[in-house]
Amino acid sequence: xxxxxxxxxxxxxxxxxxxxxxxxxxxxxxxxxxxxxxxxxxxxxxxxxxxxxxxxxxxxxxxxxxxxxxxxxxxxxxxxxxxxxxxxxxxxxxxxxxxxxxxxxxxxxxxxxxxxxxxxxxxxxxxxxxxxxxxxxxxxxxxxxxxxxxxxxxxxxxxxxxxxxxxxxxxxxxxxxxxxxxxxxxxxxxxxxxxxxxxxxxxxxxxxxxxxxxxxxxxxxxxxxxxxxxxxxxxxxxxxxxxxxxxxxxxxxxxxxxxxxxxxxxxxxxxxxxxxxxxxxxxxxxxxxxxxxxxxxxxxxxxxxxxxxxxxxxxxxxxxxxxxxxxxxxxxxxxxxxxxxxxxxxxxxxxxxxxxxxxxxxxxxxxxxxxxxxxxxxxxxxxxxxxxxxxxxxxxxxxxxxxxxxxxxxxxxxxxxxxxxxxxxxxxx
Length: 429
Known about the structure:
about 35% helix, 16 strands, zinc, seven-stranded mixed beta sheet, metal-binding
């Protein structure tokens, strides 16, 4: 038997229970002994009862890191024509998992859209028990898991020092690769690579900014204010913090002028982002080219109006996953701007009409992060920002604390009410 954290519908009912240890059910399966499991903002949707059709109890959690203790028959050195892990993964290997199952073999996986794999399943649901457990069964494990032994010994960096560093990273740091860090990187990457953002990044008008032709006879030179990139981030939970860090990292690397307003109604979250920004901007030493300001909801509208003379943001990153956040994003975005939403949305409709979107030329970019595809970028940022991602419980640390299952119910309640930040569970504590 094993201890697990289970959610009982309809809402707010967290119990720690004993259930059987999972076993191999399919030749592509792996059984993982969980070392740490994360509590994510997305876990709050079923916890609050906003996920339609959830009627059965489920083992919670979709972020976990651990050790392989059993493998299905399809894992062997002679496996060919399939994801490499089927030939290389061994019992005893240390692994981290994306928050969804992916086969690694379908069209979506091959082109990098792994979150929409034809075999996709979300960990932490009745049909795919989650990682807030002592053991977990991973379907399609050869296409889903990352072998951390393989990463730490592979040529992932230019020198031996980089490879050695990966091998020494704390489990609490590596667990961030399951979801929140890749999702934050994904949100920033999507926003900065959108055609409507490129005029500010290239100092060229649209469509020349995207490689299109422009009649020089009608071209008007861009003014300085045209080139300043203005971005809002709505929601400063763990994913929002990761999005802030990723966005700052990408913008400082490009050495362009930018302004970011980071928005959340909770003061403790705003203070965390302020502290992180102070550390990051000091490290880069390029504060003159960019500025981040934290704000509550009401003040954010005034900030954007002042910065842009009422024009609005080039891009808004919506990290919350509800209609009020989407409404704020629409208010803040400028005509011909884009809204990138990585928040998990329920069945409620988008709070705008087609006419509103058409009249403002707003692009909506929605959906789940393809974690496997974003893993290299997320790992690179994880390595370079260990001052934020490496410690537990510090002023600028993303992970606030590590607790046992005995306080699971209270931890869910505290996280739901904004009394704590990112928390990890040690199933053996």
